[in-house]
């Protein structure tokens, strides 16, 4: 009876949390926080599950130390969460320059905003925004203030990821006033809840790691299973289509355009080669890195110097949908196609955009907004407002990059102002006249000007070379083709071995053939891994931060982790090589798709944290391992004769995946507490990550759930559980709301 109650409460919580994320999307975050996550019955549901689980463990007289420690850590974490829920106070304090305040504001969904007193006074001394050199991209926000506690004057400073604590009250940088004369800090007082919760995290981390290394544990038994010596695989499919080639409008000669591409530009909040901007320009508007045999730099130069010609070029990609049909556009349209004297204000997208910004957010109007963004990029290029290629360093050392059409400050020396305003106009005249030798001279002079006036804002030579390599070599495209192709080749060998099992002589020949080729496959896998390592290292050099800042980079990282696992395990478990090729190829294919290839940019200050990097990398490792259990599950369902062997292999991946997922989730909680002042906010991705953890954790409770000992049941459960990962990684981004929703 107690077992059924525990399972029922466990299942009920999973359903409630999943439903809450959907309700949050429909009703809003405040409603979900009040009606569900902050309600008394949700707290009671967790308390009942904790009590029932503890009673069940005591009744079964469990004596295995890692199991007891693991479940005890969950009780401690829940106790800390309860203390925080009941006792913690959190609000905002608004500081203005030179003014003293002793109050902070607490927002409550029931009673609204209330004012409460601090046990001391605060006075703002200075607020400062730190920028990346030569750009307007914020690197950090910093507040200096004084705490006045009786006769004591305590100097204090907070910034992103750097908190200040006094008398049990913690202060976090939250926001600032537009005029730069005020700063908004988060105030958090939770001395007991955080201490208890962090203790629970520490116990959990130790238990999850110990579970993997305990010689008497279930994971070590799984590694010793004789069934791991067998196995097979069934495949995925891939179709690659190539774009057509043809002739295009006037452009600069390839050599001249390449020289232009080696100049620097302020783009996406950082200084990078024009080649990077040109590549992104082509991908965002046309969907491809190049166009009809022309390089990205040539295409960009065409729109800069031969704009009227290129307005007639069908360069703009149009997505399929109602908008395309209504406007009778092809797969690609010209800029002129979108302007007509018959349309409102001459712009055929005008009415669609007016409706879109009035609240019509259906697919057709979203397509119109997307197409309009492409048009705006072209218009900015025509006006040259996006060509911030001309730096000037003031006497105080501050460097600003200007476009030819920018309004220049009076402090700029006249000869510099004249050069900034006229250089592109002179180059355009030479381009129209075909005087490309003169354009080459202008480019050489501009390169010297940038080096002389760019100051410390210019990237280092190593960063510059790394960016050129990154723009020139499509690492993800090459590697996904190689890895998926090799995945099918290695699949052939496994199928060949299966079909010759019944004939001893043929079977021996198949084994010998596999051993002969195994070295070649392993070498290619290692070379692919080293190439991907180089690609990630290049992106790290360019951005200065670990390459996990966006969906494109995390996909590369997951592929890297999968290949690393395959290299380590392939000698003992030969089937892992097939998994390594196919899975890494799949992740690289996803990264290849244009939807997840944003430019490398400056990371938001709050995201530039080692804790966040650890959190993301461990979570990605977990997802990579769980992807392997998913493939094992599919194979186990379609190949019943191999189901037991695949179950044994799946367990080898499952235990470290659960450990990595648990550690990753709660390292993220620690980072959130350091950065935001709250370690758990029931954000949609947090909630679905917890759901995923709980779903997969059930799969290792085979003594309590003996049905999962049967291979078919086990594989079916893990295949269905993988849907939670899809929801966590993609569903939250594209369908739900929250801080992690970045689609």
Overview of this structure, please?
By secondary structure, this protein is of the alpha+beta class. Among the domains are: 2-87; 89-189, Tick-borne Encephalitis virus Glycoprotein, domain 1 (Sandwich); 474-600; 604-743, no CATH class. A four-stranded antiparallel β-sheet has the order 1-8-7-6, covered by helices on one side. A four-stranded antiparallel β-sheet has the order 2-3-4-5, with no helix packed on it. The relative contact order is 0.09. The chain has 24 helices and 14 strands. A hairpin with a 2-residue loop joins strand 9 (264-267) and strand 10. Mean pLDDT is 81; it is low at 229-248, 501-505 and 594-601. The radius of gyration is 30 Å and the shape is globular.
Strand order of the largest sheet: 1-8-7-6
Query: What about the largest sheet?
Result: 4 strands, antiparallel
| Estimated helix fraction | 55-70%
In oligomeric terms, what are we looking at?
A: single chain
Q: What's the Cα radius of gyration?
A: 30 Å
Strand percentage, roughly?
Answer: 5-15%
* Tally of individual helices: 24
Summarize the structure.
Its main location: membrane. By secondary structure, this protein is of the alpha+beta class.
Layout of secondary structure:
Blueprint: H1 2-27, H2 29-37, H3 40-60, H4 65-87, E1 89-96, E2 100-108, E3 112-131, E4 138-149, E5 152-159, E6 164-166, E7 169-176, E8 182-189, H5 191-213, H6 218-223, H7 254-261, E9 264-267, E10 270-273, H8 274-286, H9 296-305, H10 307-310, E11 316-317, H11 322-326, E12 332-333, H12 350-357, H13 363-383, E13 390-393, E14 399-402, H14 414-433, H15 436-453, H16 461-472, H17 475-499, H18 504-543, H19 551-569, H20 575-592, H21 610-638, H22 643-676, H23 684-698, H24 711-734
Antiparallel strand pairs: 1-8, 2-3, 3-4, 4-5, 6-7, 7-8, 9-10, 11-12, 13-14
Main location: membrane
Membrane topology: Multi-pass membrane protein
InterPro entries: Cyt_c_assembly, Cyt_c_biogenesis_CcsA/CcmC, ResB-like_domain
């Amino acid at each position: 009876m107690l077992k059924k109650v525990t399972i029922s409460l466990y299942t009920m919580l999973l359903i409630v949390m999943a439903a809450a994320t959907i309700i949050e999307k429909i009703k809003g975050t405040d409603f979900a926080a009040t009606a569900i996550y902050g309600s008394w019955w949700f707290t009671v549901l967790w308390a009942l599950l904790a009590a029932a689980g503890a009673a069940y463990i005591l009744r079964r007289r469990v004596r295995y130390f890692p199991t007891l420690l693991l479940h005890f850590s969950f009780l401690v974490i829940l106790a800390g969460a309860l203390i925080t829920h009941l006792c913690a106070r959190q609000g905002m304090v608004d500081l203005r320059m030179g003014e003293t305040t002793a109050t902070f504001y607490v927002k409550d969904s029931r009673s609204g905003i209330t004012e409460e007193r601090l046990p001391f006074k605060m006075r703002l001394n200075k607020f400062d925004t730190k920028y990346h050199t030569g750009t307007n991209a914020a690197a950090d926000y910093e507040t200096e203030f004084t705490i006045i506690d009786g006769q004591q004057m305590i100097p204090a400073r907070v910034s992103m990821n750097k908190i200040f604590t006094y008398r049990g009250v913690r202060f976090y940088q939250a926001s600032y006033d537009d005029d730069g004369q005020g700063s908004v800090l988060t105030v958090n007082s939770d001395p007991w809840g955080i201490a208890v919760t962090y203790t629970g995290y520490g116990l959990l981390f130790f238990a999850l790691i110990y579970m993997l290394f305990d010689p008497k544990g279930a994971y070590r038994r799984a590694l010793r299973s004789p069934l791991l010596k067998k196995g097979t695989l069934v495949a995925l499919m891939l179709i690659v289509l190539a774009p057509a080639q043809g002739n295009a409008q006037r452009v600069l000669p390839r050599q001249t355009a390449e020289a232009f591409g080696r100049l620097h530009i302020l783009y996406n909040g950082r200084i990078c080669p024009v080649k990077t901007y040109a590549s992104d320009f082509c991908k965002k508007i046309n969907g491809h890195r190049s166009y009809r045999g022309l390089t990205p730099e040539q295409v960009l130069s065409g729109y800069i110097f031969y704009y009227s010609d290129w307005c007639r070029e069908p360069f703009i990609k149009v997505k399929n949908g109602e908008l395309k049909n209504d406007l009778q556009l092809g797969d690609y349209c010209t800029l002129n196609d979108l302007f007509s004297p018959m349309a409102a204000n001459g712009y055929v997208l005008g009415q669609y955009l007016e409706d879109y910004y009035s609240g019509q957010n259906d697919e057709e109007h979203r397509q119109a907004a997307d197409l309009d963004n492409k048009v705006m990029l072209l218009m900015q290029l025509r006006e040259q407002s996006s060509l911030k290629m001309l730096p000037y360093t003031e006497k105080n050392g501050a460097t600003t990059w200007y476009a030819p059409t920018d309004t220049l400050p009076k402090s700029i020396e006249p000869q510099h102002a004249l050069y900034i305003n006229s250089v592109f106009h002179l180059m355009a005249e030479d381009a129209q006249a075909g005087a490309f030798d003169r354009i080459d001279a202008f480019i050489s002079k501009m390169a010297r000007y940038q080096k002389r006036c760019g100051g410390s804002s210019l990237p280092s030579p190593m960063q510059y070379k790394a960016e050129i390599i990154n723009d020139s070599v499509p690492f993800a495209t090459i590697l996904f083709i190689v890895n998926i192709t090799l995945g099918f080749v290695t699949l052939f060998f496994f199928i060949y071995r299966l079909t010759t099992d019944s004939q001893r002589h043929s079977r021996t020949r198949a084994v010998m053939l596999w051993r002969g080729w195994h070295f070649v496959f392993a070498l290619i896998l290692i070379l692919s891994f080293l190439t991907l390592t180089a690609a990630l290292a290049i992106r790290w050099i360019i951005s200065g931060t670990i390459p996990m800042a966006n969906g494109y980079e995390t996909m590369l990282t997951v592929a890297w982790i999968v290949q690393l696992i395959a290299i380590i395990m392939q000698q003992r478990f030969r089937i892992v090589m097939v998994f390594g090729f196919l899975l890494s190829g799949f992740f690289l294919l996803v990264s290849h798709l244009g939807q997840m290839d944003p430019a490398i940019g400056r990371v938001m200050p709050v995201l530039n944290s080692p804790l966040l990097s650890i959190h993301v990398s461990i979570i990605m490792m977990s997802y990579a391992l769980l992807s392997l259990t998913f493939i094992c599950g599919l194979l186990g369902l379609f190949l019943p004769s191999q189901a037991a062997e695949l179950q044994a292999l799946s367990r080898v991946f499952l235990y470290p995946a659960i450990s990595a997922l648990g550690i990753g989730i709660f390292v993220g909680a620690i980072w959130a507490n350091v950065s935001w002042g709250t370690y758990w906010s029931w954000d949609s991705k947090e909630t679905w990550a917890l759901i995923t953890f709980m779903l997969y954790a059930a799969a290792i409770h085979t003594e309590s759930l003996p049905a999962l000992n049967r291979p078919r049941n086990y594989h079916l459960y893990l295949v269905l559980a993988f849907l939670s990962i899809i929801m966590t990684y993609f569903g939250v981004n594209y369908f739900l709301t929250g801080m992690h929703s970045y689609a």
